[in-house]
């Protein structure tokens, strides 16, 4: 598995903790920034990660900002991305099993590093169930295609 990772200034510290976890799990990753505490614009960091995941260059993407909200909104504008904002372990598992999410967003100002790392482990380790969920995910992707102007 290959993971793309980014944060804005509000998620910098949690991103660094996630990098340590990915290293300990022997998961290949690339850090797309930011690497400062100076205020930056979250779309500038969400977009490159979402594009890399959508293109298939990376299997999954993880984004962190203050709340996770801005990052998830920006990532979900990219065709083919299903980014879930998650702050609990139940949702981390469900979003993979039921929604086949390929990106995860979290908020450093919302949860602590212990819970965040548990969420990452669960999210990375959970497979899509398929079955009845496949048709639902397909419907979501059809909506995306309809409103992106691409058939």
UniProtKB/TrEMBL annotation:
Q: Which GO terms describe its molecular function?
A: ribose-5-phosphate isomerase activity
Reported EC number(s) for this entry are 5.3.1.6
Q: Which UniProt keywords apply?
A: Isomerase
GO BP annotations listed: carbohydrate metabolic process
One Pfam family hit:
LacAB_rpiB
Q: Which SUPFAM superfamilies match?
A: Ribose/Galactose isomerase RpiB/AlsB (SSF89623)
Q: Which family does it belong to?
A: Belongs to the LacAB/RpiB family.
| Protein name, as recorded | Ribose 5-phosphate isomerase B
Q: What is the lineage of its organism?
A: Bacteria, Bacillati, Bacillota, Bacilli, Bacillales
């Amino acid at each position: 598995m290959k993971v793309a990772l980014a944060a804005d200034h509000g998620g910098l510290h949690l991103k660094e903790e996630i990098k340590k976890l990915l290293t300990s799990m022997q998961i290949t990753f690339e850090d797309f920034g930011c690497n400062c505490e100076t205020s930056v614009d979250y779309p500038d960091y969400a977009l490159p990660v979402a594009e890399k995941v959508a293109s298939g260059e990376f299997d999954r993407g993880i984004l962190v900002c203050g709340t996770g909200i801005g990052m998830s909104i920006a990532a979900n504008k990219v065709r083919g991305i299903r980014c879930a904002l998650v702050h609990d372990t139940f949702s981390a598992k469900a979003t993979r099993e039921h929604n086949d999410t390929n990106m995860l967003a979290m908020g450093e100002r919302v949860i602590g590093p212990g819970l965040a790392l548990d969420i990452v482990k669960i999210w990375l380790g959970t497979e899509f169930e398929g079955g009845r969920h496949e048709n639902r995910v397909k419907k979501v992707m059809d909506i995306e295609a309809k409103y992106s102007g691409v058939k």
